[in-house]
Protein backbone atom coordinates (compact mmCIF):
# COMPACT_ATOMS: atom_id res chain seq x y z
CA UNK A 1 0.00 0.00 0.00
CA UNK A 2 1.20 3.51 -0.81
CA UNK A 3 1.35 5.78 2.23
CA UNK A 4 0.48 9.47 2.32
CA UNK A 5 4.06 10.52 3.20
CA UNK A 6 5.16 8.85 -0.06
CA UNK A 7 2.76 11.17 -1.90
CA UNK A 8 3.97 14.51 -0.56
CA UNK A 9 5.62 15.42 -3.90
CA UNK A 10 2.53 14.83 -6.11
CA UNK A 11 0.32 16.56 -3.49
CA UNK A 12 2.51 19.65 -3.57
CA UNK A 13 3.01 19.59 -7.34
CA UNK A 14 -0.73 19.17 -7.99
CA UNK A 15 -1.52 22.14 -5.73
CA UNK A 16 1.10 24.30 -7.48
CA UNK A 17 -0.08 23.25 -10.96
CA UNK A 18 -3.73 24.02 -10.13
CA UNK A 19 -2.67 27.39 -8.70
CA UNK A 20 -0.70 28.22 -11.86
CA UNK A 21 -3.49 26.96 -14.15
CA UNK A 22 -6.10 29.03 -12.32
CA UNK A 23 -3.82 32.07 -12.55
CA UNK A 24 -3.60 31.56 -16.32
CA UNK A 25 -7.37 31.14 -16.55
CA UNK A 26 -8.10 34.35 -14.65
CA UNK A 27 -5.18 36.63 -15.49
CA UNK A 28 -4.05 35.62 -18.98
CA UNK A 29 -6.98 34.03 -20.81
CA UNK A 30 -9.59 35.92 -18.74
CA UNK A 31 -12.48 33.77 -19.95
CA UNK A 32 -14.45 34.58 -16.80
CA UNK A 33 -14.44 38.35 -17.36
CA UNK A 34 -17.75 38.19 -19.20
CA UNK A 35 -19.36 36.36 -16.25
CA UNK A 36 -19.62 39.62 -14.31
CA UNK A 37 -21.78 42.47 -15.53
CA UNK A 38 -22.03 46.09 -14.45
CA UNK A 39 -25.31 47.56 -13.26
CA UNK A 40 -26.33 50.55 -15.37
CA UNK A 41 -27.02 52.47 -12.15
CA UNK A 42 -24.10 51.12 -10.14
CA UNK A 43 -23.45 54.34 -8.23
CA UNK A 44 -27.09 54.56 -7.12
CA UNK A 45 -27.12 50.92 -6.03
CA UNK A 46 -23.86 51.39 -4.13
CA UNK A 47 -25.26 54.50 -2.42
CA UNK A 48 -28.45 52.65 -1.42
CA UNK A 49 -26.49 49.72 0.01
CA UNK A 50 -24.09 52.07 1.82
CA UNK A 51 -27.09 53.92 3.31
CA UNK A 52 -28.36 50.67 4.83
CA UNK A 53 -24.87 50.03 6.26
CA UNK A 54 -25.07 46.23 6.02
CA UNK A 55 -22.26 44.17 7.44
CA UNK A 56 -20.30 41.80 5.18
CA UNK A 57 -22.33 38.71 4.39
CA UNK A 58 -24.86 37.14 2.05
CA UNK A 59 -28.18 38.79 1.35
CA UNK A 60 -31.26 37.80 -0.61
CA UNK A 61 -33.74 40.10 -2.38
CA UNK A 62 -36.54 40.07 -1.50
CA UNK A 63 -35.92 38.59 1.93
CA UNK A 64 -38.48 36.15 3.25
CA UNK A 65 -37.70 34.72 6.69
CA UNK A 66 -40.23 31.88 6.57
CA UNK A 67 -41.34 29.73 3.64
CA UNK A 68 -45.01 30.04 4.60
CA UNK A 69 -44.77 33.83 4.15
CA UNK A 70 -44.04 33.31 0.43
CA UNK A 71 -47.77 33.19 -0.31
CA UNK A 72 -48.56 36.51 1.40
CA UNK A 73 -49.71 39.12 -1.12
CA UNK A 74 -46.99 41.64 -0.18
CA UNK A 75 -44.28 39.00 -0.70
CA UNK A 76 -45.79 37.87 -4.00
CA UNK A 77 -45.79 41.54 -5.06
CA UNK A 78 -42.12 42.01 -4.11
CA UNK A 79 -41.13 38.99 -6.21
CA UNK A 80 -43.26 40.20 -9.11
CA UNK A 81 -41.75 43.71 -9.00
CA UNK A 82 -38.19 42.45 -8.64
CA UNK A 83 -35.31 42.48 -8.52
CA UNK A 84 -34.86 38.94 -7.27
CA UNK A 85 -31.33 37.99 -6.42
CA UNK A 86 -28.49 37.23 -4.09
CA UNK A 87 -25.86 39.73 -3.00
CA UNK A 88 -22.54 38.99 -1.31
CA UNK A 89 -20.88 41.91 0.41
CA UNK A 90 -17.28 42.01 1.54
CA UNK A 91 -15.61 44.35 3.99
CA UNK A 92 -15.11 47.81 2.52
CA UNK A 93 -11.61 48.83 1.49
CA UNK A 94 -9.05 48.07 -1.15
CA UNK A 95 -9.02 44.47 -2.35
CA UNK A 96 -6.11 42.55 -0.85
CA UNK A 97 -5.62 39.46 -2.99
CA UNK A 98 -2.92 37.94 -0.77
CA UNK A 99 -5.22 36.28 1.81
CA UNK A 100 -7.52 35.00 -0.94
CA UNK A 101 -4.59 33.54 -2.91
CA UNK A 102 -3.17 31.92 0.24
CA UNK A 103 -6.56 30.39 1.02
CA UNK A 104 -6.91 29.20 -2.58
CA UNK A 105 -3.51 27.50 -2.39
CA UNK A 106 -4.43 25.87 0.94
CA UNK A 107 -7.67 24.64 -0.64
CA UNK A 108 -5.64 23.19 -3.53
CA UNK A 109 -3.45 21.37 -1.00
CA UNK A 110 -6.54 19.99 0.77
CA UNK A 111 -8.02 18.72 -2.51
CA UNK A 112 -4.69 17.15 -3.46
CA UNK A 113 -4.34 15.59 0.00
CA UNK A 114 -7.76 13.92 -0.14
CA UNK A 115 -7.14 12.82 -3.71
CA UNK A 116 -3.88 11.29 -2.53
CA UNK A 117 -5.67 9.59 0.33
CA UNK A 118 -8.26 8.03 -1.96
CA UNK A 119 -5.65 7.02 -4.53
CA UNK A 120 -3.41 5.53 -1.84
CA UNK A 121 -6.30 3.31 -0.77
CA UNK A 122 -7.36 2.24 -4.26
CA UNK A 123 -4.12 1.96 -6.25
CA UNK A 124 -1.59 -0.67 -5.23
CA UNK A 125 2.04 0.15 -4.60
CA UNK A 126 3.13 -2.12 -7.41
CA UNK A 127 0.85 -0.44 -9.92
CA UNK A 128 2.94 0.83 -12.80
CA UNK A 129 -0.08 1.99 -14.71
CA UNK A 130 0.08 5.78 -15.16
CA UNK A 131 -3.46 5.82 -16.56
CA UNK A 132 -4.95 4.02 -13.54
CA UNK A 133 -3.56 6.66 -11.16
CA UNK A 134 -4.54 9.38 -13.65
CA UNK A 135 -8.17 8.18 -13.77
CA UNK A 136 -8.59 7.96 -10.00
CA UNK A 137 -7.00 11.30 -9.15
CA UNK A 138 -8.47 13.05 -12.19
CA UNK A 139 -11.99 11.96 -11.28
CA UNK A 140 -11.70 12.99 -7.63
CA UNK A 141 -10.12 16.37 -8.33
CA UNK A 142 -12.55 17.13 -11.16
CA UNK A 143 -15.46 16.49 -8.81
CA UNK A 144 -13.87 18.59 -6.06
CA UNK A 145 -13.25 21.60 -8.28
CA UNK A 146 -16.22 21.44 -10.68
CA UNK A 147 -19.24 20.20 -8.78
CA UNK A 148 -19.78 23.40 -6.77
CA UNK A 149 -20.67 25.31 -9.92
CA UNK A 150 -23.86 23.32 -10.49
CA UNK A 151 -25.62 24.10 -7.18
CA UNK A 152 -24.72 27.77 -7.69
CA UNK A 153 -26.52 27.74 -11.03
CA UNK A 154 -29.48 25.76 -9.71
CA UNK A 155 -30.10 27.59 -6.44
CA UNK A 156 -28.38 30.97 -6.64
CA UNK A 157 -29.19 31.95 -10.20
CA UNK A 158 -25.61 31.93 -11.45
CA UNK A 159 -25.79 31.96 -15.25
CA UNK A 160 -25.28 28.48 -16.70
CA UNK A 161 -22.69 29.92 -19.08
CA UNK A 162 -20.57 30.88 -16.04
CA UNK A 163 -21.17 27.49 -14.41
CA UNK A 164 -20.07 25.67 -17.57
CA UNK A 165 -16.84 27.67 -17.60
CA UNK A 166 -16.22 26.76 -13.95
CA UNK A 167 -16.86 23.11 -14.78
CA UNK A 168 -14.30 23.40 -17.59
CA UNK A 169 -11.87 24.97 -15.09
CA UNK A 170 -12.48 21.95 -12.85
CA UNK A 171 -11.66 19.67 -15.76
CA UNK A 172 -8.36 21.51 -16.32
CA UNK A 173 -7.52 21.33 -12.61
CA UNK A 174 -8.38 17.63 -12.59
CA UNK A 175 -6.16 16.96 -15.59
CA UNK A 176 -3.10 18.76 -14.21
CA UNK A 177 -3.58 17.09 -10.80
CA UNK A 178 -3.96 13.68 -12.41
CA UNK A 179 -0.84 14.27 -14.48
CA UNK A 180 1.18 15.22 -11.39
CA UNK A 181 0.08 12.10 -9.50
CA UNK A 182 0.50 9.80 -12.48
CA UNK A 183 4.01 11.09 -13.09
CA UNK A 184 5.18 11.05 -9.45
CA UNK A 185 3.34 7.94 -8.24
CA UNK A 186 5.72 5.69 -6.30
CA UNK A 187 6.59 2.67 -8.42
CA UNK A 188 6.93 -0.59 -6.53
Topology of this protein?
Layout: H1 8-29, H2 42-52, E1 57-61, H3 73-81, E2 85-89, H4 97-122, H5 130-146, H6 149-155, H7 160-184
Antiparallel strand pairs: 1-2
Describe the structure.
The protein has a two-stranded antiparallel ribbon. With 188 residues, it is mainly alpha-helical. It is built from seven helices and two strands; from the N terminus they run ααβαβαααα. Helix 1 runs antiparallel to helix 7 and helix 5 runs antiparallel to helix 7. The relative contact order is 0.18. The chain is 62% helix and 5% strand. The chain has a domain of 125 residues. The mean pLDDT is 95. The N and C termini lie close together (10 Å). The protein is elongated and about 70 Å long.
Short description:
With 188 residues, this protein is mostly helical. 62% of the residues lie in helices and 5% in strands.
Helix-strand sequence = HHEHEHHHH
Major sheet size, sense and barrel closure = 2 strands, antiparallel
Give the tally of β-strands.
Answer: 2
Which consecutive residue ranges, at least 5 long each, have pLDDT under 50?
A: none
Report the portion of residues in β strands.
Answer: 5-15%
What's the pLDDT, averaged over the residues? 95
Task: Name some characteristics of this structure.
5% strand, mainly alpha, 2 strands, two-stranded antiparallel sheet, 7 helices, elongated
Amino acid sequence: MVTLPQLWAPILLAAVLVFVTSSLVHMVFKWHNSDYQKLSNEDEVRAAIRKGNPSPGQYVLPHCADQKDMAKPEMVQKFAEGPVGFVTLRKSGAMNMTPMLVNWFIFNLVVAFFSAYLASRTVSADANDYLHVFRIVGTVTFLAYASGAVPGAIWMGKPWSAAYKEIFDGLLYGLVSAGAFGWLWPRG
